[in-house]
Write a structure and sequence with these properties.
Layout: E1 5-13, E2 19-28, E3 33-37, H1 44-50, E4 62-64, E5 67-68, H2 74-80, E6 81-84, H3 97-107, H4 112-125, H5 141-153, E7 159-163, H6 171-183, E8 187-191, H7 195-201, E9 204-209, E10 212-218, H8 219-223, H9 226-231
Parallel strand pairs: 3-8, 3-9, 6-7, 7-8
Antiparallel strand pairs: 1-2, 1-4, 4-5, 9-10
Length: 236
């Protein structure tokens, strides 16, 4: 059985010379839910953008579902990895919710009857079935975040990679998101500053700092180590 996500000694330098990743290694098993925490600029988003090939890696340092991520595998990799950005407006651009959620499967050439089923199933999974014909731009942030998750669920991904999913949510929307993430069956890697969310949803936590993995272990151990959290700019 292959790891669902396999990152080995990943290094990445932006064109301006900024070294964002300095030898990151990370293995995630099928069905694991893993939180990725650390200060801003730690390299969390840069790591996530490698997992579906938005940023290119060389030498097969990144494998997803057993596939090395490079230009020849991008179609398969992007079908397997659902990446949800921090700002849902980066993901929602169609006139209606239905069209946003149908966009991915239609582009993959899925038959129209199956697209309908996938849209219904994705919206049901995020508790948004009643919003089919609504205009995405008129929704609240919490509703938009759910629709953004539905736009990747409709592709039937094996892996969900989410960047700051609870940012900007009010307490009720955040509670709904926690229940949603807990119930979804996919393997998950979620970057967040929300350590309460981490505590409630993710059995394993990885701390990144300055382009490296600083700690990786059971969430209860990591969150109970005050000195470790303080050293990496985190606090409960």
């Amino acid at each position: 059985m292959h790891h669902t996500i396999e990152v080995h000694d990943l290094r990445f330098k932006y064109p301006d010379g900024h070294e964002a990743l300095m030898g990151v290694s990370l293995h995630i098993e099928p069905g694991e839910k893993v939180a990725l925490v650390g200060p801003n600029g730690a390299g969390k988003s840069t790591l996530m953008l490698h997992l579906n090939g938005i940023l290119p890696s060389e030498n097969g340092n990144v494998k997803v579902c057993g596939l090395p991520v490079h230009k020849d595998t991008l179609g398969k990799v992007r079908a397997a990895v659902g990446l949800v950005f921090q700002d849902p407006d980066d993901q929602l651009f169609s006139p209606t919710v239905f069209e946003d959620v149908a966009f991915g499967p239609l582009h993959m050439g899925v038959a129209e009857t199956e697209v309908r089923q996938r849209v219904d199933a994705a919206l049901a999974a995020v508790g948004m079935s009643a919003y089919l014909q609504r205009v995405s731009h008129h929704l609240s942030v919490g509703e938009k975040k759910r629709i953004a998750i539905a736009t990747v669920l409709s592709m039937n991904p094996e892996i969900l990679v989410l960047d700051e999913p609870s940012a900007g949510l009010d307490p009720r929307a955040r509670r709904g998101l926690i229940n949603l993430l807990r119930d979804l069956p996919q393997t998950m890697l979620v970057s967040t500053h929300d350590l309460r969310l981490v505590e409630e949803v993710f059995p394993r936590t990885v701390i990144m700092d300055q382009g490296r993995v600083a700690a990786d272990g059971p969430t209860e151990h990591i969150l109970s180590d005050a000195a470790l959290l303080t050293a990496h700019g985190l606090e409960i």
